[in-house]
TrEMBL record:
Source species: Haloterrigena alkaliphila
PANTHER family: HYDROXYACYLGLUTATHIONE HYDROLASE GLOC
Keywords for this protein: Hydrolase, Metal-binding, Zinc
Requisite cofactors: Zn(2+)
MF-aspect GO terms: hydrolase activity; metal ion binding
Metallo-beta-lactamase domain: residues covered: 13-167
Family annotation (Gene3D superfamilies): Ribonuclease Z/Hydroxyacylglutathione hydrolase-like
The protein's name: MBL fold metallo-hydrolase
Keyword ATP-binding tagged: no
InterPro entries found in the cross-reference section: MBL_Glyoxalase_II, Metallo-B-lactamas, RibonucZ/Hydroxyglut_hydro
Amino acid sequence: MIANLAQGVRAFTSNVFLVDGERTVLIDTGANFDVVDAIRDRIDDIDAVVLTHTHRDHVGNLEAVTDAFGVDAWGYDPSIDGVDHAIEDEETVRLGDHEYVALHTPGHKNDHLCFYSDDADVLFAGDLIFQNGSFGRTDLEEGDREALVESIDRVLERIDEDLAAMHTGHGPSVTNNPYEHVELSARMARQA
C-alpha cells in the first residue's frame, strides 16, 4: 500500500509517501505539518526513511520522524546532515513489499534519487518529473538543465511502457499512462 500523507495539507511541503509492507518506509518527510501524527494515524511504526533529495520541503520533518520512530534516514549523500546511510546508484532497496532500483538523477539537486520497481511497475520520481510534462526546477543551487535532461532520459530508458504509477514529489500521482508523462517531460525539458 502506498499513501501520500501530505495529500490535502495546506502548507509548503513535498509529498510524503508511506509505503507499507514487509519493510515499511517513509519516502521523504515533507515540511511544515505534523507528519508524525499522520503516520501514527495509519500505522504504529516505520522501518526507515528514504529520501529522494534533501531540499528543505522534503526533509523539514526529518528530525521529528527519526526521533519519534527511532529510525535512520537513507539518501544519496551521507555527508548531508540527517542522512545516516548512503544509497548508491543502481543499488536495490526494499520499499514495502517490492525491490526498487535507486537511480541517481541529478539536475534538480546533486543528491537526487528516483526509485523504480519493475515488479510493482511503480516509479518514485521525486522532483525530477511531474505530471503533464512538467519537470524539476533548475534555477536553484545545484540545478543543471543539461544534467536534468540526461536524468530524465535515463529514467525513460529504464522504466517499462506499462508503468502503472508514478509518484512525484509535488502534485498528484500519475496512474493514467505515466510513461507518456515521462516522455513528455523529456521533450519539454529540452525546449524550455
